[in-house]
Structure formats: C-alpha cells, structure tokens
Amino acid sequence: MTYSALLALLLLPVLAASAQAQSLLPVARTQQLPPPRKEKFQLYLLVGQSNMAGRGLVEAQDTVPTPRVLRLNKDGQWELAQDPVHFDKPTAGVGPGLTFGRDMAALDTSVVIGLIPCAVGGSGIDVWQPGAYFPDTQVKPYDDALARTRLALQQGTLAGIIWHQGETDSTPEKSAAYRQKLQTLIGRFRQDLQAPTVPFVAGELPAFQLAGPDPDGKRHPNPSLKRINHALVQLKQDVGHYTYVSSKGTHDRGDQLHFDAASARLLGHRYAKAMQHLQRAPLPRLR
C-alpha cells in the first residue's frame, strides 16, 4: 500500500466524524456590546497558523457561550464567543482560543475578555510581516491582524498575544532562521500596536508532527521541528515579557498534523496559565 493510500485510509474516521460535527456548528451568533469602560475590556490577539485557528472537531461543550468572553467576527463586530472562533478556512474548528478566553475571564470576574482571531492556516512566518500576501487564503496576515486589533482597541485594552505557528517552517533552511524571525515579529507587533510590554506567549510544536516518509515508507522525528521548539525556549533570553507553553501530552486528530479538540483545550489552559504568570511578573525595563 502506498503512503497516500495509507493516509487516506487513516483519515476516513476523521472525515466521518467531521461530517457529524458539522451539525454542532453555531448557525447564528449572538452579537454583544463590550463594556463601556476600555480598561474593563481586555483584548487578546490570537495569531499563527492552523493549530491556533483550530482544526479540532467541535463538540457540544465548545458551542456554549460564556457571557464575558467575546470574539471579533469577520465583519468586525463583537459577539459571544463559540467555536469555531476562527474563520480562516471552512475547516476551522476547536482551537485553544475559547478555552484560553474562558480561563482568563475566570481569573477576574470584573472584566470582559475580547478575542481577536487572526490566525491563518498554512501561513509561514515570512508572510507575518507588513505587506506580505498569502495566496492560499488571499489575505495579508500581518496587515489584517494589525487592522483588526486597532479596530478592537477603540473599545478595549490589549492585554496579551498568543502565537502558535511553525509547521510551515519545519524545514532545515527555514527552521534555522526561525528564532530571529520570531523575535523580530514580536518587536514589530509591540511597536505597531504601541504596546512595548504586552505579554507574548508562543506554543511548542507537537512531537506527533513527524518528518515525511523516507523511501521505505516510514516516518521519523523531524529535527527541524525540534529546532523551532528550541528557538522558542531560547527566545526567553532575548525577549522580555515572553514565554512559551509545552505541547507535551497532546495528540493529533488522526492526520499527524493538527491537535484534536481535547489537546487544543489543554493548550488553551496552558496559554492562560502562562499569560497570567507574565501579567503578574515585573515589567521589563525599556531601553
């Protein structure tokens, strides 16, 4: 059996479950006005590629809205957050964003959380810079994220950024430059959004994302993936008010690429815990 045929066979239950999950997707969303005081509306920018956007299968628990967790929809309107939070592709599903938002709301019952979904499936870090165009989805990821965040800032305060990306950059050449590129991206977001100390949390790539098959048809650990994860660790030496979350214990949805829904929620909890830690930490000195 060829590798393509084997992959197709493995994906059959995933596709069947996906079709069943379509019935759970919210048909109508409820628009909600944010609180009148900007300091009570804490905004979080969600950026990266498909594992931030979410590809987990939607379950009933993912469609229950939380009154104090909103999302900025595609049209720039605030509504009660439900999965899928993102809208980058029709395959958008459960990602870490909603669980993250729920956890952050639980930490302070006096505030409302606003999620700004801007992740784009398949986008490499090179298109996360001003003017860069991503033909797969016909968007400019960085410019769009900046515009949506500035719109949200008219009513709220930026409290943090979470980032999960790197699958597209898991090649020997691209992974070697990842550390510097992500450091530049963090600095650019902070400068362009006039938020020099905004907390930034990145997520590790999972071990189940193996390298492509060798001629023998077997898949092996991807050294480029390890290099990217090592870069996330090293960035703590270079960037203030930054940390990363582990992908340990996560599982794929059957495609050896995307987190299943349970793992996406687990990452959401980890992002919230890391964000809380950064927000309580002393602010770095500005140079």
Report on the architecture of this protein.
Helices cover 36% and strands 13% of the residues. The longest helix is centred in the last third of the chain and has 20 residues, at 261-280. The protein is globular and about 60 Å long. It has eight helices and seven strands. Strands 3-2-4-1-5-6-7 form a seven-stranded mixed sheet, sandwiched between helices. The protein has a single domain (30-280), classed as Rossmann fold, CATH 3.40.50.1110. With 287 residues, it is of the alpha/beta class. α3 packs across α8.
Give a quick set of tags describing it.
287 residues, 7 strands, alpha/beta, Rossmann fold, globular, seven-stranded mixed β-sheet
Short description:
Helix content is 36%, strand content 13%.
- Residue-averaged pLDDT, rounded? 90
User: What letter string, H or E per element, gives the SSE order?
Assistant: HEHEEHEHEHHEHEH
Shape: globular
Query: What's the arrangement of strands in the largest beta sheet?
Result: 3-2-4-1-5-6-7
Distance between the termini: 59 Å
Any low-confidence stretches, pLDDT <50, length ≥5? 1-8, 14-23
Set out the fold topology.
Elements: H1 3-21, E1 41-48, H2 50-53, E2 69-72, E3 78-80, H3 97-107, E4 112-117, H4 141-152, E5 157-164, H5 172-176, H6 178-192, E6 200-203, H7 223-238, E7 242-245, H8 261-280
Parallel strand pairs: 1-4, 1-5, 2-4, 5-6, 6-7
Antiparallel strand pairs: 2-3
Helix pairs in contact: 3-8
